[in-house]
UniProtKB/TrEMBL annotation:
The keyword Oxidoreductase does not apply. It is a multi-pass membrane protein. Residues 13-144, 160-292 form the EamA domain. InterPro entries: AA-Vitamin_Transporters, EamA_dom, EmrE-like. Keywords: Membrane, Transmembrane, Transmembrane helix. This is EamA domain-containing protein. It comes from the Bacteria.
Length: 303
């Protein structure tokens, strides 16, 4: 309560956080829909080449940045992890599993972040983190358990789910790694720089035929593409950075729990996907584990 009185959060900050989570929650839905028209590599290439053009103006502060071989290597690592390491597995995974399931598996990112921070950065592991991790692992196990109880599952579904988990792990790697760069050049500039650098390796898959496919997209496909490229990749990041500037980490993190819910609703409404009771149960376990793992113990400062 004292935090709320001390720091009044403007409505536009909450609106920005809500819009960003809406874009991120619908990203798996838009991706799965567009994979009807593109291959995974084609879609990732188009998405990030367009997004890179919007990110270019955010690189202005780098004129005063002092480069070194170590910093360049770090930027390249972050870019490859955030763009290729995350988005390529997601695109391939969504070819074979529903966007609702993908949204739940992507929601495991905070748990991976906690583990990486603990083992790589030597951050202290609390008992709430351990219990939260176990709950989330149980939820993921329930999801994979559908391979044995749901006749629609097969090895391709299983491999697709593993790809989504790999993507969540790579995004956690990016999140932990980009923190140092964000402190030096600012969050927006660091995001723009790493996204642009991560786009360059995608150009090796450049194919003139890819861009000709844009002429045959339907109106709905164009909406999905704009949502994915401009909305999810560019606008959502900027809106999120704006929102977190006026809130605490704990206040902002609450909005992240809406992402899998939005993915489930979006997949049901726009892709007519079926969500089973097991999926909902596993989702509750994963989200409950994430929430518990992020609890701040009394007496610890909040960011």
């Amino acid at each position: 309560m004292a935090l709320l009185i001390k720091k009044k959060v403007p409505v536009r900050a909450y609106s920005a956080l809500l819009l960003s989570t809406l874009c991120w929650g619908l990203a798996p839905v838009a991706t799965r829909y567009l994979l009807i028209s593109f291959t995974p590599l084609q879609l990732v290439l188009i998405r990030f080449v367009i997004a890179a053009l919007f990110f270019l103006p955010l690189l202005t502060p780098l004129r005063r940045f002092h480069w070194s071989v170590k910093k360049v290597s770090w930027v390249v690592f972050c870019g490859v992890a955030g763009v290729i390491g995350y988005n390529v597995p997601v695109a391939y995974g969504l070819r074979v599993i529903p966007s609702s399931l993908a949204g739940l598996l992507i929601a495991s990112e905070p748990i991976w972040i906690l583990l990486i921070a603990a083992f790589v950065l030597r951050e202290k592991i609390t008992w709430t983190m351990v219990i939260g991790l176990l709950l989330s692992v149980l939820g993921i196990t329930v999801l994979f358990g559908q391979a044995y109880v749901d006749a629609t599952w097969n090895m391709r579904n299983f491999a697709g789910a593993l790809l989504i988990l790999l993507a969540a792990f790579m995004w956690a790697m990016y999140t932990v790694s980009v923190r140092r760069l964000s402190k030096e050049v600012g969050a927006r500039t660091a995001t723009a720089l790493t996204m642009i650098v991560g786009t360059f390796p995608l150009l090796t898959w450049w194919d003139s035929h890819t861009w000709s496919l844009l002429r045959y997209l339907s109106g709905a496909a164009w909406i999905a593409l704009v949502l994915l490229t401009v909305g999810s990749t560019v606008a959502a990041t900027i809106l999120w950075n704006y929102g977190v500037a006026y809130t605490t980490s704990s206040q902002a993190s609450i909005f992240l729990y809406l992402i899998p819910l939005i993915s489930i609703i979006g997949g049901t409404l726009f892709l007519h996907e079926h969500t089973s009771i097991l999926t909902l149960l596993s989702g509750l376990l994963i989200l409950g584990g994430i929430a518990l793992g992020q609890l701040v113990r009394p007496g610890r400062a909040k960011n």
